[in-house]
Amino acid sequence: MKKRITLALAASLLVLAAGSLSGQSLKGMSLNGSTGLIGIPTGRVGWEHSSDLGFDLGHHTIFDDDHTAYINKASLSLFRLAEIAFAYDTNRGSDNEDMIISGKLQLPTQGTAVAIGGNVQLLQINGEDETVQQIYLAATYPGQFFNMPAETTVVVGKSFGDMGPGSEAIDFGMGFDLVLFPDIFQGFVHWVNDFSNFSYSWHAVGPNAQDRGAFNTGIRIDLASYPALSRYKLVIDAMMTDALDDNRAFALGIVFGAPLQ
């Protein structure tokens, strides 16, 4: 009950922010490799406005008191409307090695970016192989929050597979990316938040969202805001996963991307 009340408060905060958010295209990767916030994808693809062909390479390390996960990932954006992504998730101290293969197609909408997507998660759990699939619809729309550019994302989907308790639930997530004080930080610093009842994978280190939900928050530094780097992506992440629970973890990451055509 305490967890549900906490998540309701987090949801209320995001809804209030959503009413006045405005927009700047998010350039980071979610933890499973898709273009997104922390635990959830957005309605955007990686190079939707700038290149018919572009790639992103990323790494995130997630650590708590008992586990450390290393996630290496890569994505390829195609024709400014689609992307495919791959993530390899290893857990130090165990032989678990998970792979996540994702895809996303952006719909021809105006203003709000809408994408349909999904992923296949090839998981190793206690020495056993498991497979989980997820499909989703993600919408990202611009606004302003106290005159600071931002974007709000809502995700609705469904996961399938032998997932145990909680597997009958509809997947839901919401979050926003706020460009913090652009007059001071010149667009370099983003405050990124999301909450959802699903994690970046069903076998996630850090956010334990499947049965209770998780709120994730952090700072995303967009070094490509520097004019000499504007053709590329160079993003540094410092994040807290499941920040409102006692199993919170921390994540550090970096993403580099470049147009190919």
Automatic annotation (TrEMBL):
Keyword Signal set for record: yes
Keyword entries, A-Z: Signal
Signal sequence, renumbered to the chain: 1-23
Identification of the protein by name: Transporter
Species of provenance: Alkalispirochaeta americana
